[in-house]
Amino acid sequence: MTASLRVTAIRVGGASARVRPRVLGAALILAAAAFLLFCVGMTIGDYPLSVGKVVAALFSQGDYYDRVVVYDWRMPRALCGLFVGLAFGMSGAIFQTITRNPLASPDVIGVSAGATTAVVCGIVLGVGAGLGTQTLGLAGALGSALLIYLLAWQRGTTGYRIVLVGIGVSWACTSATSYLLAHAKLYEAQQIVGWMVGNLNDSTWAQATPLLIAMAVLVPITIAMSGWLTALHLGDDVAVGLGTPVQLARLTSLIVGVGLVAFGTAAAGPVAFVALAAPQIAKRVAGTPVPPLVTSGITGAVVLLGSDLLARELVPDTQLPVGVVTGALGAPFLLWLLARANRAGSGG
User: Fold this and answer.
1) Each residue's pLDDT tens digit, 296-320
2) Using CA atoms, how far apart are residues 248 and 252, in angstroms rounded to an integer?
3) What is the secondary structure of 147-212 as a DSSP string?
4) Cα–Cα distance between 239 and 230 in angstroms, integer?
5) What's the CA gap between 20 and 9, in Å, rounded?
6) What is the rounded CA–CA span in Å between residue 347 and residue 67?
7) Which residues contact 65 (CB under 8 A, 6 or more apart)?
8) Up-side HSE of residue 61: CA atoms within 13 Å toward CB?
9) Under 8 Å between Cβ of 143 and 255
């Protein structure tokens, strides 16, 4: 039996859990990398700080001004990067599992596009004025996901139909967004384009706080659904034989995945390729047949925080939007996935 498939029982008091050593080890290493990147990101700015000073400030130690800089100025951006990456990584793992397709992710099958269209519609047309990007993004993502589910329904849904319908909905939403941009005022278009690329540059507690609350609710629900997701990946017939309510499980997973990507998109914009790449990287690092949920989320955080560091340091005196870096890195990864799927005879 390979190391990736071994299962170890861990007992704490009267509770016990089964874990795979390789999966646990991968998650811990990635979590350490995410924490390091989280701290390094807060060293950058006009007021210089070392990693040691940032860590001391996080634990309410060190100089008072260091703590002010860390908590008031730089913490919102770091938290947004961490939890947006976590949200996109876990959401991508959910969609790739329920569709049984490594190319399925919220930014491919139309969920992110629906959130984007709703936010742009709110800015340009004033629809839902006062609701904020979080509420508009959630409404748009839920609306596009519901449309995908209804159009894919034919005495039930399958992952293949969800992907095909989702691509069509994605293009429809993208066309609507382009139309709205063409009719936007100049300052509105500038605001929208900066957000649409995926941007952490202007993150504040106003973006970070709703995201933190949403993640505190959605992450435990996602972890609790891991049994359903594993069964769905085995196919509908096997899942039914295991006692899984297939349609309920797929619908619930879809709603939770939409919630994750909606709040992440509202906080930082539709950052490209994180939801696509993170689960596939986590799957290979952990050596599992299905993208592991928690490890996928942590991988998403590492990818986004690392990309944000590159975006801030790549061009001197310029802070690029993080989506520029993830797009540049993610496009070759997508081509590699496509080539690999075609070689394996699973292009769809």
Assistant:
1) 999 999 999 999 999 998 888 788 8
2) 6
3) HHHHHH-SSS--HHHHHHHHHHHHHHHHHHHHHHHHTS-HHHHHHHHHHHH---TT--HHHHHHHH
4) 9
5) 9
6) 51
7) 47
8) 6
9) no
**What does the pLDDT read at residue 15?**
44
> Rounded to whole angstroms, how far apart are CA atoms 254 and 251?
5
Residues in CB range of 39: below 8 A, 6 or more apart? 51, 54, 55, 58
Coil/strand/helix, residue 3 = coil
Task: Read off the amino acid at residue 258.
Answer: V
CA distances for 348 relative to 92, 155, 276, angstroms: 17, 21, 15
Q: Which residues of 168-184 are buried (b: 16+ CB within 10 A; e: fewer)?
A: ebbebbeebbeebbeeb
Cα separations in angstroms, 288 against 21, 27, 154, 220, 279: 11, 12, 31, 21, 11
Structure confidence by residue, pLDDT tens digits, 273-285: 999 999 999 999 9
To which residue do tokens 């689960």 refer? 279
Determine if the pTM surpasses 0.90: no
CA pair distance 51, 57, nearest whole angstrom? 10
DSSP 289: S
